[in-house]
Amino acid sequence: MCYHIPIMRILILSDIHANLVALESVLNATVGRYDAIWCLGDVVGYGPSPNECVALMRERAALCVMGNHDWAVLGRPGIDVDDFNPHARQAVLWTREVLTAESRAYLEQLPHIPIRPEADKNLLLTHASPREPVLEYILTPSIAMENFAEFTEQICFIGHTHKPVIYRWRLHDEITADAGTESERQQIATVEMLQPQIGVPIKLNTSPQLRLMINPGSVGQPRDNDVRAAFGILDLEAKTWCYERVGYLIELTQNQMRAVNLPRRLIDRLSFGW
Ligand code: ZN
User: Fold this and answer.
1) How far is the CA of 40 from the centre of ligand 1 (A)?
2) Closest among 9, 11, 21 to 251, alpha carbons compared
3) Distance, CA 95 to ligand 1 centroid (Å)?
4) CA distances in angstroms from 204 to 81, 162, 212, 246, 267, listed in the order given
5) How far, in Å, is the centroid of ligand 1 from the Cα of 31?
6) 15 C-alpha vs ligand 1 centroid, how far in Å?
């Protein structure tokens, strides 16, 4: 017998970066609260446990896209590890050495283009941006604005910057009236940058006139001065997004990094969340 179990609540993870302690803390904190996991890429790079994190995502994530670190670790054309900063590069090269054939096979098959989940055709998932799926950093409303022109879905989930944020695109009717002449109606688009509150579900009132780009932040290497692992839960039934943080044993990850001689700077930054 075959039952169709609809996917309603989705745990969205991004930029795990081989930080198994952080990933396990997120999974422990969310038990029973989701029906599926979607991952926005960069499962590996920076952290000490690439194979363990890949194994967890292979087992549990229904969808996962390719991140720039995942790609760089594979050493395929398209991304040059020499373009990475020296510490990131060192971590990529170390990851390449320890990556098992099984982990490599998983990373190899990750799509490096945005994907539209079966569960909802109004959603798009990409690592970096709709325009440059693996590489572009969406850090400002103006870069977001350019990217809203690159997709038609109502919500696009992005990662890559390691900073939780929501960009809200709106199409307004604007009426311009010059004195003594006829008024003219025109449509203009604006983009606002919103900072979601932790643990407070927000209603996703999207439409063709109101679209969103949502970044859940990073599980394994947050860069918004909050050291805790970041993630979010999308509820397709209630149409809500809840952005959350959970603390993890940072020292444990740092000890694991020291044990395999990953760069000091990468170890230290976890204590500050940048
Ligand atoms: Zn990343």
Assistant:
1) 9
2) 21
3) 14
4) 38, 22, 9, 23, 37
5) 25
6) 5
Are the C-beta atoms of 14 and 132 separated by less than 8 Å? no
Condensed to tens digits (0 to 9), the pLDDT of residues 14-23 reads 999 999 999 9
CA of 176 to the centre of ligand 1 (A): 44
Q: Which two tokens stand for residue 86?
A: 């020296």
Tally the residues of the chain.
274
Tens of pLDDT, residues 113-142: 999 999 899 999 999 999 999 999 999 999
Domains and CATH numbers, the chain: 9-269 (3.60.21.10)
Å from CA of 195 to ligand 1 middle? 20
101 CA → ligand 1 middle, Å: 22
Pairing of strands 210-215, 155-157: parallel
End-to-end CA distance of the chain: 50
pLDDT tens for 232-248 read 999 999 999 999 999 99
Element (H, E) at 268: helix 264-269
CA of 36 to the centre of ligand 1 (A): 21
